[in-house]
Specification:
The protein has six helices and four strands. By secondary structure, the chain is an alpha+beta fold. The protein has a domain of 148 residues: Alpha-Beta Plaits (2-Layer Sandwich). A four-stranded antiparallel beta sheet has the order 2-3-1-4, sandwiched between helices. Helix 4 packs antiparallel against helix 5. The relative contact order is 0.13.
């Protein structure tokens, strides 16, 4: 319209200018937040490594004892049986010697994975160290334990054949039962371990006997 001054565009609104002091504060806060997050991640990693076996991802011995103590207390309250299986691989040293430690580690990892898959969802599988593994099966009575032991024997035979392409690996298993064989974690694990070593001694005695007979047969032929 005549007489009205031309309109001017509204300048864009600007936020408050950040002074050098304000920038220093923001940088200090972000640095502190990063440090806090980094510490939290380090704590989480340290916490996991304290309870988890680095190679297989299974719970380690420390975690096993804590879990077994809790399960014994629960089974005592509910009047339930509990089975502990201690298993140790036979022929594992030969795998490392003949095929190398990389294949030995692969065998342990594959056995651990198959062990987890074969357990019931409320069973607990752990690696005690080396080639020794433990399964805690709450509610499992002695008559059902034999089936689980056979399943473990089948698993390691299949894994060994897969890794080595020959029947080189087997497993010795010791079982102990709450409350008949012990009423705490130490007693149950010690009894299962003792029986496992008895089975291992029988295994190697049988292997030596077969090898002796084979040598005798070869000498007379």
């Amino acid at each position: 319209m005549p007489g009205r001054p031309p309109s001017c565009p509204t300048p864009p609104r600007r936020g408050p200018r950040r002074s050098p002091r304000r920038l220093r504060i923001l940088l200090a806060i972000s640095s502190k937040l990063g440090f806090t997050i980094e510490n939290a991640l380090k704590y989480r990693i340290a916490e996991d490594s304290a309870t988890t076996d680095y190679l297989t991802g299974l719970p380690n011995a420390r975690s096993l004892f804590l879990h077994l103590d809790r399960e014994i207390a629960r089974c005592k309250r509910a009047n339930l049986p509990l089975a502990v299986f201690v298993s140790d691989l036979n022929g594992f040293k030969q795998v490392n010697d003949r095929f190398g430690h990389f294949q030995g580690n692969k065998l342990l990892q594959m056995f651990a994975e198959a062990l987890k898959d074969s357990c019931r969802e409320y069973d607990y599988a752990a690696r005690m160290g080396g080639d020794e593994f433990v399964v805690v099966a709450a509610g499992l009575a002695q008559d059902a334990a034999a089936e689980m032991a056979r399943r473990l024997e089948t698993i390691i035979a299949e894994v060994g054949k897969n890794v080595c392409n020959e029947d080189l690996v087997s497993v010795s298993i010791g079982q102990a039962f709450y409350p008949a064989d012990g009423r705490n974690a130490e007693h149950l694990l010690a009894e299962a371990d003792r029986r496992m070593y008895g089975a291992k001694h029988s295994h190697y005695a049988s292997v030596a006997d077969r090898q002796g007979k084979a040598r005798s047969a070869g000498a007379t032929s």
